[in-house]
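Hypothesis: this fold can be encoded by more than one sequence.
Test: take the structure tokens below, design a sequence, compare later.
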């Protein structure tokens, strides 16, 4: 599942750059993190707004999945370290 999430985000990032590449280096991260703000100011069309929202959701879910995997692996890792002491 983690591999699929990374794969989806990497390939969606290329599409994101194609759709929002006109914004430049500074506005692109801002419009991905807060797409509503950019849409209200007129930087994004409705379709670009949807692409930015899906990108934001994909990144947030990847971070949440990574965090869940990390906290699930922590107790096991501590048990293995204690066993080899």
């Amino acid at each position: 599942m983690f591999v699929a999430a990374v794969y989806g985000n990497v390939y969606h990032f290329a599409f994101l750059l194609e759709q929002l590449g006109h914004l430049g280096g500074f506005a692109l991260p801002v419009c991905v993190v807060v797409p509503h703000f950019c849409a209200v100011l007129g930087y994004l069309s409705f379709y670009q707004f949807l692409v930015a929202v899906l990108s934001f959701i994909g990144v947030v879910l990847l971070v949440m999945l990574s965090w869940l995997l990390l906290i699930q692996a922590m107790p096991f890792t501590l048990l293995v370290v204690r066993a080899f002491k």
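The mean pLDDT is 82. The two ends are 33 Å apart (CA to CA).
Hypothesis status: open.
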